[in-house]
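Hi F.,

I've been meaning to write this up properly since the lab meeting, where we talked about keeping a consistent format for the predictions we share between groups. The idea is simple: the sequence comes first, exactly as it goes in, then the structure tokens exactly as they come out, then a line or two of notes. No screenshots and no reformatting. I'm using this chain as the first example so we have something concrete to point to.
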Amino acid sequence: MKASVVILNWNGRKLLEQFLPTVLRHTLSQEAEVVVADNDSSDDSLLFLTTHFPHVPVISLDKNYGFAEGYNRALQQVDSEYVVLLNSDVETTENWLTTLVDYLDTHPEVSAVQPKILAQTRKTHFEYAGACGGFIDRFGYPFCRGRILENVEQDVGQYNTVVPVFWASGACLCIRRQDYFEAGGLDARFFAHMEEIDLCWRLNARGKRVECVPQSVVYHVGAASLTKENPRKTYLNFRNNLLMLYKNSRRRSIVLVFTVRLILDALACTHLLMKGKLDNAKAVVEAHRDFMKMWPDFRRNRRENLSKRVVGRIPAKFRRSILWNYYVKGRRTFGDLTRNP
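Output, unedited:
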């Protein structure tokens, strides 16, 4: 099999009912399969699949391993050249997969690609979590071609070129299976959030390329498992971002990065308190507390990542502060950043 599209499901029966038929219609062929990996759902997801889609292979995991380890275990059980991590709340379009696979076939230097990701509930605009390819700034803040912080752009074809990116969204990530496992896969300790950025950082640093191919288009609902305002999501994003920075930052920059992040995260916590979001502010504090407990366990990973790094400066990494550019210089779109270096 050339490609396996793996949908990781956890209590997502309604999402499977809504989106799986479209995925199957746009994907199944002699060279592509669709597989559902179930993270020990407690709803009737498995009954729904066996009743309505008995031809769809199902990988049943014995507990909820989260996004990261759930995919690691699922991808070990498929044997395709390319694997696609596809969220259960993604609506595909005609030729979405063949476009990505054909690109990888003709560009052996590229390890992973993502399509253009638009919002399923507002199809004229980019989707927050992936848009047209991801980047991070020097202090670890992620942003996208099509979304800078809270500013999400309308898609008018302004980012229709194929470009190298720092990270491809885990909502729809097509990657060479061999490269996925050679890079170590997703870090299971993250559980969920930031794990695809961490993986793509390793790929970029080791001389692999990650790109966005906007000729392939999908629509993503987003926040189907945890809403944007959920304190658990705040906690995972802050904690995992710090762990990712520790794992991958070069020696000469790590002290500056963590000094600035401590200040900026304190400001973020204060801002949340002023808005009355006490649980989210507490989540930021808990994220830093748990990072301090966890970072010694990541020393070996940091040494390994630095030893396997073959690239000095990753071109797709934004060398300045996205917060400074957004709030002080008023550069609210990716186009503003590239026009005003």
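Notes:
The longest strand covers residues 209-220.
Residues 135 and 299 are 25 Å apart (CA to CA).

If this format works for you, I'll send the rest the same way.

G.
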